[in-house]
Design a protein that fits this description.
- By secondary structure, the chain is of the alpha+beta class.
- Helix content is 19%, strand content 41%.
- It contains two helices and six strands.
- Strand 4 and strand 5 form a beta hairpin.
- It is elongated and about 80 Å long.
C-alpha cells in the first residue's frame, strides 16, 4: 500500500511540475506557427519582379518577428513594392548592399500582411551578380 501511494504521489508531483513549467513557457510541446518570417514564404506565390531601387531602409518589421530588418522599395513598371530582404544584423554582415538607382531582378514570394502587399526576397540579381538570401522554402541561408 505504501509503495503504491508513493508512486501515485510521484506521478502527481511530476504532473504538477510539468504544468507549472508549461505555464511559464520553459517547457513547450507545441508552439503555434506565427505568420512571420519563413512562415509567410509560400513557394506557390513566387514571382519575379524587375525594377529600380527607390530607397533602402532598416526598420522594425512585423514580418521579421519585430526585429530590425533590411528593406527596399522597388519601383516596377506596375507598382512600388516593399521588398523584405533579411534581418538587419544579417544584412550588415554581408559583403553586398543596395543603393537607390540599382536595377534589380527579385525572385521572392508575394504576400499580403496587415493590408500591405510585399515580397520576401529569396534571390536578387544586379547585373551579373546574384545574391541568394533564402532557400526555396523561405528559410534564411545567409547568416551572421
Amino acid at each position: 500500500m505504501k509503495l503504491s501511494s508513493f508512486i501515485v504521489g510521484t506521478i502527481c508531483g511530476l504532473a504538477v511540475i510539468a504544468v507549472v513549467l508549461m505555464l511559464f513557457g520553459v517547457l513547450s510541446f507545441h508552439r503555434p506557427v506565427t505568420l512571420q518570417g519563413a512562415a509567410l514564404y509560400n513557394p506557390s506565390n513566387e514571382v519575379v519582379v524587375t525594377g529600380s531601387v527607390a530607397s533602402v531602409d532598416e526598420f522594425t518589421c512585423p514580418v521579421g518577428e519585430n526585429e530590425i530588418g533590411g528593406h527596399l522599395i522597388l519601383t516596377t513598371a506596375r507598382e512600388d513594392l516593399l521588398i523584405h530582404l533579411a534581418p538587419g544584423r544579417v544584412m550588415r554582415s554581408q559583403s553586398f548592399s543596395f543603393v537607390a538607382g540599382d536595377k534589380l531582378q527579385v525572385v521572392g514570394a508575394k504576400f499580403r500582411f496587415r493590408g500591405q502587399n510585399g515580397v520576401i526576397a529569396r534571390e536578387i540579381t544586379r547585373g551579373n551578380e546574384t545574391f541568394v538570401l533564402r532557400d526555396h522554402e523561405g528559410k534564411l541561408l545567409v547568416t551572421q
